Amino acid sequence: MTADAPDVKSRRRDIALGGAGFLGALLLVLLFWSGTPRVQQPIQYNHQKHLNLGLKCSDCHTLYANSPWAGLPTTETCAQCHQEPAAGTAEETKLLQFTKKSQPLPWKQVNQLATHVYFSHQTHAVSAGIDCATCHGDMKNQTAPPTKPLFVP
Predict the structure, then answer these.
(1) I want to staple 145 with a disulfide (CB 3.0 to 4.6 A). Which of 28, 41, 95, 115 is the partner?
(2) Is the pTM above the cut of 0.85?
């Protein structure tokens, strides 16, 4: 046995313990850090149901053609079809309460861009003709509103 043999074993042990500690910390971060917090919308809007009825994105997201922001449905927009109960669902009942009180729907913003980034729906969807699904995914299969960003910037 050489004189430096214990130092080699000690060094290997230190490397193994350091690696195990790093992997353990990484595992904890991956398990408990969700990245972007999820949001809960006031109405569990069913995109699939409305798109199957023939509505288009622009029927509810009315600002995209003339504004950088696509806009979220207003109570007035929803009331065009939902003045009286049609489906009798709990979500429709919530919507009717907002419309009867003339209260705005308190939608929560899901997508957040960095402060140095400028994005315009008008430029992309209207001028460039990019389909909504290119960035937002196939909403025809979504039965609830997004709770986290649909894309990773």
Answers:
(1) 41
(2) no
